[in-house]
Amino acid sequence: MEARFLDMNAEFVNPFLNALKNVLGTMANLELKAGKAAMKKDEMARGDVSGVIGMVGPQLKGSFSISFEENLACEIMHKMLGEKPDKLDAEVCDMVGEITNMVTGGAKRELGEKGYDFEMATPIVVSGKNHTISHRSEGPKLIMPFTHIAGKAYIEICFDRAV
Amino acid sequence: MEARFLDMNAEFVNPFLNALKNVLGTMANLELKAGKAAMKKDEMARGDVSGVIGMVGPQLKGSFSISFEENLACEIMHKMLGEKPDKLDAEVCDMVGEITNMVTGGAKRELGEKGYDFEMATPIVVSGKNHTISHRSEGPKLIMPFTHIAGKAYIEICFDRAV
Lengths: 163, 163
Description:
homodimer; alpha+beta; Chemotaxis protein chec; Chemotaxis protein CheX (chains A, B)
């Protein structure tokens, strides 16, 4: 059972990791160092600003989130625009919404080529010091931490089989 | 343009309000007093614990969120179970995820009867003192505050026409 979950996750998770690398590399010339993925239920994504989005397809439904510490989100903005905001303003939140959309869109294309089709809902941005994100799903749930000199980030992905 | 947005919203929003009333009435024998809905882009839902969920259908895509102040979330738990937690614990977060699912499920049924079909993604629960929720959508976005003697709640709904 556990093995099936892990297999499913490698197949489903890599497209998100590839898309995240492409989006941050292209938009901000910035690379995050991936930490160890966890399937544990007691792990929680944590950050100061997060983008979340729902996904629904004929074979699956799920959700994706990406959370950033404040300073890392500001640093991505800095690398994109040349100027560093000193706090999480509306523009940083817009950027996090855009990153969420682009990463999920990239994963959607790659998963579509593998025969897993889904449509994306509209993204939501959460802002607030040190909040936690927890995906509610019967299916497997993966959380992966990332580090950068400017701060930490987390992605969390979960998929249910569609009913 | 504005009129079309508002009409669309009355049609789309009432099923969520009806479902919220049913869910809280049935689960917790609790009634929230609805405040004035706003379509403004600078309004923000705010709370200590929120449930968010994505929706995708052939004609539309969107997202729904419901945010509670800590004391109100604990009071709903109190009314459901007879015992009041003194802070936002894992059980309260579970309950908020469940309310999110049930309210969206109720709205899905009512909207389905009107010919608007959508599937629900998996819900996500956000926890963190006084965080804000902001839906990112090209389409209309509605935010509605609710009050109760135990605290405030907000729902936020947005829908894009599906591409």
